[in-house]
Amino acid sequence: MGPVHHAERLSIRGGIAGRGRRAVPEETAVALSFNGGTHAVMMATPADFADFAVGFGLSEGIIEKPGDIESLDVVETPDGIDLQIWLTADRAAPLIERRRRMAGPTGCGLCGLEMLEDVMRPARRVASQCRFAPRDIATALAALPMAQALHRETRAVHGAGLWSRETGLVELREDVGRHNALDKLAGALARQGTEAGDGLLLLTSRVSVEMVQKAAVIGAPVIVAVSAPTALALRTAEAAGITLCAIARDDGFEIFTHPHRIAAEVTADVS
Prior knowledge:
By secondary structure, the protein is an alpha/beta fold. It has 2 domains: 28-119, Ubiquitin-like (UB roll); 134-261, Cytidine Deaminase, domain 2. It has helices at residues 49-59, 89-102, 113-119, 134-147, 149-154, 178-192, 209-217, 231-240; strands at 4-13, 16-25, 28-34, 37-44, 69-77, 80-87, 158-164, 168-175, 199-203, 222-225, 243-249, 252-257. It has a 6-stranded mixed sheet. The longest helix is centred in the C-terminal third of the chain and has 15 residues, at 178-192. The active site is at residue 108.
């Protein structure tokens, strides 16, 4: 199964009907199984599986580096894809203990206090003090459309990319799920040994708390998103030392947290 499906459709535009085909993104269930036990099932674009496995493992704290994964098997089933991930012995032991603690009564919503604490865990503090100019953000955003091949074809997927002043667009990943796109980007960067501390993290989606937490894991000092953040995302970014720029368009953007990383090139409106 590839990432794109060409669907037959009937188009009605301006009162005129026409038949043809449209490219739409594939979406399938992807199970992430660690050492024989399923940890999560995500609806995702069936592509970049190794990046997904590494990035998800990093963001969930299951692994600390790509080398903690001993092997990865991509198993196609009638219901979707099973990513069978096997960890090294030293990383498998904490996972087994974690499963043991989580075993207990069912029917409790988020499965008890421990699960709530996992969801609301403090984000890692980002120490990078790199600075960017507004023109850097404009340049980074301008690089996105040409790199988003799947979105250009389907108009239906999210993208997450890393841009640096020295390299330009370092890497980009796309997926039907915004979290998945960022996990795949995180995995790609980790597998390449690329640091995010001197770059802009570009998101084509809104910014929720999980997106900020994932940004903190890879050490991204600045998030630039085309859509708006949630209030909890702002509080999390503030605590994590992350500069959060959102509602980024051709004509500018809005800075919500830690504005010191964006060098002033504008005249302040104090009205």
